[in-house]
Amino acid sequence: LSTAVLLVAFSAACATSPTNRRQVVLYSEADMVRQGEGTYRQMQSELPMSSDPRETTYVRCVADHVIAAPEPTQQAAYRWEVTVFDSPQANAFALPGGKIEVYTGLFDVAYNQDQLAAVMANEVVHVLAKHGNERASRSALRRVGIAAARVLGASNNNVQAIDFGTQLGLQLPFGRAQESEADAMGLMLMARAGFDPRESIVLWENMSLDRGLRPSEFLATHPSPETQITTLRNLMDQALSARVQALSSG
Fold this sequence. Notes:
The chain is mainly alpha-helical. It is about 60% helix and about 5% strand.
C-alpha cells in the first residue's frame, strides 16, 4: 500500500516548481489562496501582534523590497501582507496567497536588514513555488493510503508501519526538498533586491547557535544548518553578481 501511495504521488506530479522539480499539486490556486487567507485572519484574531510600530515598519520595508524582486516569469498577482506577531520564537512562515507571519523572536538571530531579508526571501519563495499546495497534497495522499489500509483490514501494527513509512517517504524528505529550493531561490531573490547575500550564511550560523540540540537530519523537515550553509556557499558567486547588477541599476 505504501508503494501504491508513492505511485499515485508520482503519477499526480504533473506540475513543476520554478527550479523544474516535479510537484504533486492536487488543489486549485483559488482554494489554496482562500485557505491561506482564512488561516491568516484567524491568527491575527488569536495571536498578539507587535505593538512596536518600528518593528512592523522595518519588517514590511524589507519585505516590500524582496516581494518586488522576482523575475517577471516568477511574479504572482497576490495581495501580499506581512504581520509581526509578539512571540519569542525565532521564526517566520508564509501562507498561500502571499500572507507572511514574522515572530519578534526572529530579531534575536536576524541582526540586520540583510539577515532579515534572507528570511523574508525564503518565505516569499515558499509562496511563489506553491510549496503550501505541495504539502497539502502530500498530506492528502498520505491520508488516502492510511484509509485504504484500514478498509483492506490491515492490523493496527501494519497501519502504524504504513503511516510511519509514508511520513518518511512522502512528507519529511519532501519538506527538505522544499526548504533547499527556498534556500537557493531565496538567496538569488534577496540579492536581486539589493541585500547582501553573504549575510544569509551568518543568519544560519546564528540559527544554529540558537537552536542548540537538533533532531537527526534524516528525520527533520529542514536540512541541517551545515547543509543549508553549503548550498548557499555554492551559489554565492552567482548571488553576489546578481546583487552588483541590482545595485548598478538602482
